[in-house]
């Protein structure tokens, strides 16, 4: 067997040649493997004599199967001895496959970029922030709860801010219907609907059944690109109007929500919940700030294939998230003024930093001798499966991929915990 190893920038490649004599055992193994699945009258499956069974297979079939077995076995042996790290699944390209001349194939993999961290401990000097809950945040949460317990009743008057309304509307630009800018009996609280500036002002003072035409110049910065910066002629009809009655924020209101005896208990619970959210947000900020300081001025050449894989993953996550929310992804793209290709290009620009962060975390884990235990990985797998709960008929999760994913999650968590401990120790010095 002749093996030539070569590294070219971001790729590692092995050219493997085995002669006909070396290939012969794999041909025998291929035949035995194929016989196991053969059904033959008068014999049990897998128990057919070889001299009878081999007549049912062409030489090409046996050679093809032998190449599959040989390349997999030899590739596994080569990779087991390799000291370089690579990403994903290496590729195998068969160049020649002949029973007498032998087998020639290329084993190819993309190398993980080398990350030289240097004296990264000197770089990190992040200061933790103490999360605090402001009075206005508590008030905002109380108002949200208050709105969830509102009572509605129909009224015979003109529409006012704070009313619940249903409107049918459409929008034209240059006499042409704007795609996505039409709805029937669209419900919202007047003044809180999130429409373009001036739209809801025009609904104030209308009565149920009344129609109205008005034109608005939409700001260029408006979130929906289909209407941003354009002059839109709106046609609106007020279909329904209800007065919204909000409960007073007193002890009885707190009791109506469940296990609270007073409004003070409710406020204390809200404060506790908001503080927990802020602590989690601060934890993420603190960790990313540490990582950013380590990455700063760190030169790492990111393979294009890694950037593309990360961009594709981000794109797919967004698509799934939009469709799980009950929206058509094509319609969502139209609303934000993006094409699939344009969105992927946006993700490509942000993918490099995410890939670099992943590589740095991997390098830190190696330097700090951090490796998840089998128990930690299995616990992560169990938790992720419970959260995912894929619908019946959905594509099954690859167990090897899922294990690798959980291994990286646990490893990264342990790396961040180690970084936090280092920062804390530096702060004491």
Automatic annotation (TrEMBL):
Which GO terms are recorded in the biological process aspect for this UniProt protein?
Answer: cell division; protein folding; protein transport
Primary location: cytoplasm
* Protein EC: 5.2.1.8
Q: PROSITE patterns in the record, alphabetically?
A: FKBP_PPIASE
Give the matching InterPro entries. Answer: PPIase_dom_sf, PPIase_FKBP_dom, Trig_fac, Trigger_fac_C, Trigger_fac_C_sf, Trigger_fac_ribosome-bd_bac, Trigger_fac_ribosome-bd_sf, Trigger_fact/SurA_dom_sf
GO MF annotation list: peptidyl-prolyl cis-trans isomerase activity
Keywords, A to Z, come to: Cell cycle, Cell division, Chaperone, Cytoplasm, Isomerase, Rotamase
SUPFAM superfamilies linked: FKBP-like, Triger factor/SurA peptide-binding domain-like, Trigger factor ribosome-binding domain
Localization, per the record, is: Cytoplasm
Q: Which reaction does it catalyse?
A: [protein]-peptidylproline (omega=180) = [protein]-peptidylproline (omega=0)
Q: Which HAMAP family match?
A: Trigger_factor_Tig
Domain remarks in the Swiss-Prot or TrEMBL record: Consists of 3 domains; the N-terminus binds the ribosome, the middle domain has PPIase activity, while the C-terminus has intrinsic chaperone activity on its own.
So what does this one do? Answer: Involved in protein export. Acts as a chaperone by maintaining the newly synthesized protein in an open conformation. Functions as a peptidyl-prolyl cis-trans isomerase.
Put simply, this protein is called Trigger factor
Give the gene name.
tig
